[in-house]
Structures are given as structure tokens and as C-alpha cells.
Amino acid sequence: MNGPTALLIAWASLAGCATWASASDTRALGAPRFARHAAWGRVACLVILQCALAVSVLGWAGGLALVGCAWMLLGGLYVAALNGWPAATQRWAWRTGWAALALAACSVAMERVIGEWRA
Questions:
Q1: Where are the domains of the chain?
Q2: Given CB 3.0 to 4.6 Å as the disulfide criterion, which of 37, 58, 100, 106 pairs with 63?
Q3: In whole angstroms, what is the distance from residue 56 CA to residue 36 CA?
Q4: Which of 22, 15, 13 is nearest to 71 (CA)?
Q5: What whole-number distance in Å separates Cα of residue 72 and Cα of residue 33?
Q6: Residue 82 class from Cβ within 10 Å (0-12 exposed, 13-18 middle, 19+ buried)?
Q7: What would the 3-class secondary structure string for 15-51 be?
Q8: What is the pTM of this model?
Q9: HSE toward the beta carbon, residue 95, CA cutoff 13 A
């Protein structure tokens, strides 16, 4: 159960990349859509939720390593995709990233509830 949940937690990094790109002046997307301080808040909340879920699933070292590596790897892939398909990449990264975080949270919650129920 930890493998798919860890993949969902890592995939949620795309929501942060899409949020930050919306607040930045980029060649692919043009002018920013909202202020950068709003993006800081959203991305900070996302990283905190990601770290909390990853630590609960994989432990301290594995969880924090997962989040850091996911941001580096998926951030690079996001930028590469953004250069080719800016509108579609932005839209789908935001949608699937937040959906992955929600599914990961539900998965961790269900695992905890079922674990307590069996005990």
C-alpha cells in the first residue's frame, strides 16, 4: 500500500509547480495571473501536506527524501512539457496534482482507520 501512496504524494508536486508558474512571468504562459505572495502560501501548504503524508507513510528520512526528489524530478519534467504545450500542461498539472494529494490523504486516512479497526 505504501508504493501507490508514495507515487500519489510525489505526483502532487505538479500542483505546486503549476501554482508557482501561474504567479511567475514566464515565456510560455505570459504575465502572472496572481500575486507571488499568494503562490508562496499555496505552495507552502502543499509542501507541508506532502511532507506530513510522506513522513506518515515512509518515515522521516524516506518521506522528506521523497518530497525533495519529487520536486526536482517532476519540476524539470513540468518545465520541459510547459515549453511544448503550455496551456494543457498548466491545466492538467494543476488538476492532477491536487487530485493526487487528495487521493493520497484519503489513502493514508483509510489505512489508519483500517489498521485501528483490525487491532
A1: 2-118
A2: 58
A3: 30
A4: 13
A5: 24
A6: buried
A7: HHHHHHHHCCCECCCECCCCCHHHHHHHHHHHHHHHH
A8: 0.87
A9: 6
